């Protein structure tokens, strides 16, 4: 079944900001509200904003209720997840997407929101892996914001990456799938796991021990999730950590160890992940990955 796309946004429409994970204040969202308003959109803050339950934006019941309300509200045309952290997987099984299917809307976020990106793709719907409102005011984030705007308003996206030693040349076409490696590992075997077969997988991560990266890549390999991959686009692996006794390989080298057991093309260094240059990716969109001696190109075109 082909992946379906929510309607592109138009000026004058309403978008909701909610938090499915870590708590956030309304003050932290001031830059996002200003920028979204400049895009011609009306911003609605969900019940979870400015709520706190330990590290969460309210307890599980509140965060679920807030997200469900925005899903079901016909006057909301997109839902932006305010920030990541941890918590989306705790509420995903309680969400009811039956109304969403009849009145689809864009859902956007990254990191912990990878759970939602994959869950929606399993249901047959595209969503956006991109910069979240808490980061709208960060220095150097202009490209990330413009790419999110383009994704929300239905415009094409193209990303370039440098020629790096671990790149493996080739051309791949397929739907985009992926996101945060830790979350892809977490949802394996759950109702949110989605097939990578015939698709272009993109990966990123933050603040992980290098041996954790190896363990998660090993799991994707042993569980067969890499076996029929069309291609691999690797983004930022930021603030990696090591033990007192070094693991002996950096993040890209670890990924390469498993990727070279297959023949699909691989491009490293894409501007996707936990850095200011975090380009939006439409999960489920048809894309073309081209890796040559000059570098890599990931081009997405609305199907």
UniProtKB/TrEMBL annotation:
Q: Which InterPro entries match?
A: Carboxypeptidase_A_C_sf, Class_I_gatase-like, LdcA_N, Peptidase_S66_N, Peptidase_S66C, S66_fam
Q: Where is the LD-carboxypeptidase C-terminal domain?
A: 173-289
Keywords from the UniProt entry: Carboxypeptidase, Hydrolase, Protease, Serine protease
Q: Name one Pfam family in it.
A: Peptidase_S66
Q: Which residues form the signal peptide?
A: none
Give TM regions. none
Q: Where is the LD-carboxypeptidase N-terminal domain?
A: 15-130
PANTHER family in the cross-refs: MURAMOYLTETRAPEPTIDE CARBOXYPEPTIDASE (PTHR30237), MUREIN TETRAPEPTIDE CARBOXYPEPTIDASE (PTHR30237:SF2)
Give the UniProt family note: Belongs to the peptidase S66 family.
Indicate what this protein is called per its UniProt record.
LD-carboxypeptidase
Question: What is the originating organism of this protein?
Answer: Hymenobacter saemangeumensis
């Amino acid at each position: 079944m082909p992946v379906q796309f929510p309607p592109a946004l138009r000026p004058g429409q309403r978008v909701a900001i909610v938090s499915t994970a870590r708590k956030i204040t309304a003050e932290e969202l001031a830059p996002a509200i200003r920028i979204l308003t400049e895009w011609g959109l009306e911003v609605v803050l969900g019940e979870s904003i400015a709520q706190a339950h330990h590290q969460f934006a309210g307890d599980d019941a509140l965060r679920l209720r807030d997200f469900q309300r925005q899903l079901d509200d016909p006057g909301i045309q997109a839902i932006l997840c305010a920030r990541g952290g941890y918590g989306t997987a705790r509420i995903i099984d309680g969400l009811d997407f039956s109304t969403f299917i009849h009145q689809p809307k864009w859902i956007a976020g990254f990191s912990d929101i990878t759970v939602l990106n994959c869950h929606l793709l399993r249901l047959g719907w595209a969503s956006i892996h991109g910069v979240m409102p808490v980061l709208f005011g960060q220095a150097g984030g202009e490209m990330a914001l413009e790419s999110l705007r383009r994704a929300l308003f239905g415009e094409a996206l193209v990303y370039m990456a440098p020629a790096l030693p671990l790149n493996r040349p080739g051309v791949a076409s397929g739907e985009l799938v992926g996101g945060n490696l830790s979350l892809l590992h977490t949802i394996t075997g759950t109702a949110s796991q989605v097939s990578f077969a015939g698709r272009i997988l993109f990966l990123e991560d933050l603040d992980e021990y290098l041996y954790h990266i190896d363990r998660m890549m090993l799991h994707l390999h042993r569980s067969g999730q890499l076996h029929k991959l069309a291609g691999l686009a690797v983004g930022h692996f930021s603030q990696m950590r090591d033990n007192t006794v070094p693991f002996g390989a950096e993040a890209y080298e670890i990924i390469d160890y498993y990727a070279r057991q297959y023949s699909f093309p691989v491009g490293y260094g894409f501007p996707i992940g936990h850095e200011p240059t975090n380009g939006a990716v439409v999960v489920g969109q048809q894309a073309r990955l081209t890796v040559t001696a000059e570098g890599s190109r990931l081009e997405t075109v609305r199907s």
